[in-house]
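User: Sequence recovery, please. Input:
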């Protein structure tokens, strides 16, 4: 579990430390031809000696001790060789944000090269906040120059740095995330649990994230970038869990969150958003209605619209699930990934991660997993489009399911998802609520895992694909439990027709 540091008076020093770290890392990398391995450079680069000492003194100064900068500067005598040793043993980013041991090793975070349209491949600068492609309204992907990170050495640095930290979560992949100061609440590096009954099935338990769902990953990065850009007001339409996550990260960043969600969201989503101090509007309608209101109000009120796939960083945060599952399986692909699909951000993010992992040479060569989109029968626009061989989905009428995160009648990223499902030789399924509930109860009773309805849709889908022969018990699969059941006690109790027994008189 994460050990979090309060984000208060040490901010200015954090900025200075990060600037110094990046300066040294870059000088070191470009000046001495050394990448992120932490090994000793042949030549300590072009930074003049005194400036180097000052920068290192700054990096090592103790946040709790205002005199430490002077003391350390006075006490240390840095030779070129000690420069190399020092360089490989500080981690200002992690010391400041992740409570890592001081001996952790720094991995520089990459500069964003540009944003690239997923449809027309136009490029856009990331210097200012962006929403959709200005030319065709396609979703934008974040692109970096990954060349300096190619090979096993930078991959090993991830493992080594994480091992010497008390916690770093999804930011263990900071070498493939934007170079900005993170807003973190302890997201990522969630358990990959082996099923007791299916030897080749692993449950990726995203319910362990802050705010109890995988939405934490995307919104941690989106809010991080919003703070970086100086945005003060963010607005989101949500099926429930994204609202809670935005509210939490916005509170941590001192940003105002405007939340629009259906009136019948699970109670926990309402309570958490209010507790985090967000401005909450309950809408008589679905997430699509909320999305329309957010788009209109954002224009008139000057809010930044952080809707699914309408800004580039939620996908970028969710891509860490792809890195993580591959690392947790020994840097190998599984045969299939089951993803409870609403807007599809995680599915799209993981596919992006697989592309990057291959460019980086970090994944053992092999076939990409079959991507399985799991939807509820009461709202299955992607499954329907997949079955019909269509390249986009149609608005699903009267969407209804107790798996509230799957109640997205017309996902913005439908064409991207459908392409991924076909390219991966995967499939899409629609599971009735009764079957979802049966699987939820089965996994709770027989595995000790209380899944969200969305997660239970994935376990139910797995049973179906085993029964149909699409997969065999020998196929290694990852089933995403995208949220904690504890956020759905009201909804699950209703589905189970369960009430607290009243006292017998
Ligand atoms: C628990 C849970 N699972 C799955 C989803 C669907 O996620 P996505 O929109 O990324 O497909 C949601 C969305 O709200 C959710 O809350
Ligand atoms: Zn475009």
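Assistant: Recovered sequence (505 residues):
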């Amino acid at each position: 579990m994460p050990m979090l540091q309060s984000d208060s008076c040490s901010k200015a020093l954090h900025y200075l430390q990060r600037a110094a770290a990046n300066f040294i890392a870059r000088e070191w990398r470009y000046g001495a031809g050394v990448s992120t391995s932490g090994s000793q450079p042949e030549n300590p680069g072009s930074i003049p000696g005194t400036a180097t000492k000052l920068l290192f003194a700054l990096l090592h100064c103790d946040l709790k001790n205002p005199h430490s900068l002077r003391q350390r500067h006075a006490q240390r005598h840095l030779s070129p060789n000690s420069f190399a040793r020092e360089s490989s043993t500080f981690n200002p980013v992690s010391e400041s944000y992740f409570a890592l041991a001081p001996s952790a090793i720094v991995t520089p975070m990459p500069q964003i090269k540009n944003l690239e349209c997923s449809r027309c491949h136009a490029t856009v600068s990331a210097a200012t906040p962006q929403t959709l492609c200005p030319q065709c309204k396609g979703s934008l992907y974040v692109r970096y120059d990954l060349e300096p990170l190619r090979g096993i050495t930078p991959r090993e640095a991830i493992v080594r740095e994480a091992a010497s930290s008390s916690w770093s979560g999804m930011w263990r992949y900071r070498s493939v995330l934007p170079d900005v100061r993170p807003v973190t609440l302890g997201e990522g590096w969630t358990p990959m649990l082996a099923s007791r009954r299916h030897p080749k099935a692993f449950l990726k338990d995203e319910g362990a994230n802050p705010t109890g769902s995988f939405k934490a990953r995307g919104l941690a990065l989106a809010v991080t970038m919003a703070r970086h850009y100086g945005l003060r007001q963010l607005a989101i339409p949500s099926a429930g869990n994204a609202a809670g996550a935005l509210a939490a990260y916005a509170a941590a960043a001192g940003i105002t969150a405007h939340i629009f969600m259906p009136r019948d969201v699970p109670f926990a989503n309402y309570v958490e958003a209010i507790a985090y101090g967000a401005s909450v509007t309950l809408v008589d309608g679905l997430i699509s209605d909320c999305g329309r209101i957010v788009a209109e109000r954002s224009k008139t009120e000057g809010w930044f619209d952080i809707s699914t796939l309408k800004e580039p960083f939620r996908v970028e945060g969710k891509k860490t699930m792809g890195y993580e599952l591959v690392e947790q399986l020994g840097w190998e692909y599984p045969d299939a990934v089951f993803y409870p699909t609403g807007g599809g951000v995680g599915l799209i993010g993981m596919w992006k991660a697989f592309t990057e992992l291959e460019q980086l040479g970090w994944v053992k060569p092999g076939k990409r997993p079959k991507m399985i989109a799991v939807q509820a029968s009461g709202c299955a626009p992607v499954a329907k489009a997949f079955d019909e061989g269509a390249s986009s989905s149609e608005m699903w009428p009267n969407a209804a399911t107790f798996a509230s995160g799957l109640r997205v009648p017309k996902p913005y990223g439908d064409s991207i998802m459908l392409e991924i499902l076909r390219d991966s030789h995967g499939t899409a399924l629609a599971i009735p609520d009764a079957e979802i509930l049966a699987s939820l109860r089965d996994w709770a009773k027989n595995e000790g895992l209380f899944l969200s309805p969305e997660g239970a849709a994935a376990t139910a889908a797995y049973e179906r694909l085993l029964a149909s022969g699409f997969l065999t018990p020998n196929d290694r699969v990852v089933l995403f439990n995208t949220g904690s059941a504890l956020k759905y006690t009201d909804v699950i109790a209703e589905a189970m027709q369960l009430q607290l027994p009243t006292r017998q008189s």
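Residues 191 and 205 are 6 Å apart (CA to CA).
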